[in-house]
Amino acid sequence: MTGTSRGLGLELVKQLLERGDRVAATTRSSERLLAALGDGVDTSRLYPLTVDLRDETQVKQAVQKTVERFGGLDVVVNNAGYGFLAAVEETSDREVRDMLDVQVVGVWNVLRAAVPVLREQRGGHVVNVSSVLGLTAVPGWALYCAGKFALEGLSEALAAEVADFGVDVTIVEPGYFRTDFLAQDSLALPAGTTVHYPGIREMVDNHLKLQGAQLGDPVKGAASIIDRVVAGEGPLRQVLGSDSHAYATAKVQALLANLDATADTAPATDFPTDS
Ligand SMILES: NC(=O)c1ccc[n+]([C@@H]2O[C@H](COP(=O)([O-])OP(=O)(O)OC[C@H]3O[C@@H](n4cnc5c(N)ncnc54)[C@H](OP(=O)(O)O)[C@@H]3O)[C@@H](O)[C@H]2O)c1
Description:
Elements: H1 7-19, E1 23-27, H2 30-37, E2 46-50, H3 56-70, E3 75-78, H4 93-121, E4 124-129, H5 142-162, E5 167-174, H6 198-210, H7 218-231, E6 237-240, H8 242-261
Parallel strand pairs: 1-2, 3-4, 4-5, 5-6
Helix pairs in contact: 1-7, 3-4, 4-5
This protein binds NADP nicotinamide-adenine-dinucleotide phosphate.
């Protein structure tokens, strides 16, 4: 599992260890993970791994070491991620690459190393933590949405590719959860802003104020993710939170209206078919 020293990842680690599962937990800082777990948690079945997810070699070694220690992989959880709030034109080349390095390249590094193991085992489960913003986009969240939409696309394709090997894939789509996600040191902001998007600046303030008051309970969120994996079956997308469900429903309705509006014109670009 990736991104484990805080938030949903940390809660998953705690609950899995409490269940008696063995957990290989990657983080940018194993010290931070162990400090966050504290003395009250039995860490004898924990394998903490300090990994830079952007580095393919480090990721590959982490997966190999995990397989050596545990004898295989049951569940692979891509959880690491962070928010970024800015207008499209305010987002720099570096900021785009940094986000995609974590949310797309990093996930791909994990999958490239882990999927062959699951395929050879003829079984396993990949859990990719996306967001409702992997389904619908709102102003200010373009870069985050770009990363999560990409994660949704690759996950959907992966699910179809590995189904015949007995490997299951779940895309988790949380709404606002009360983790550190919106904390000042987690939510990333652009190096430079313009005067043209006062609505987005207001949104940043409102989101920072929302920290600690989000609707979603990470304890219940982690439990729900574990339940889905243990059940071994369920829909591809695991929507978490009533806010997420409402946003996703509105997106699907808007998409259907868009399809209806183009139903007559779409076939106009086809070559004629022989009748
Ligand atoms: N909370 C929400 O409202 C919400 C809503 C929808 C989706 N999500 C998604 O849920 C997942 C977990 O987030 P969370 O809510 O638990 O937030 P969080 O409390 O801020 O934790 C995020 C985790 O991701 C890792 N991470 C953050 N930035 C990273 C970077 N630049 N490189 C590598 N790892 C990084 C961190 O791992 P280490 O520090 O241990 O390396 C951290 O444990 C994310 O993918 C997030 O996008 C959250």
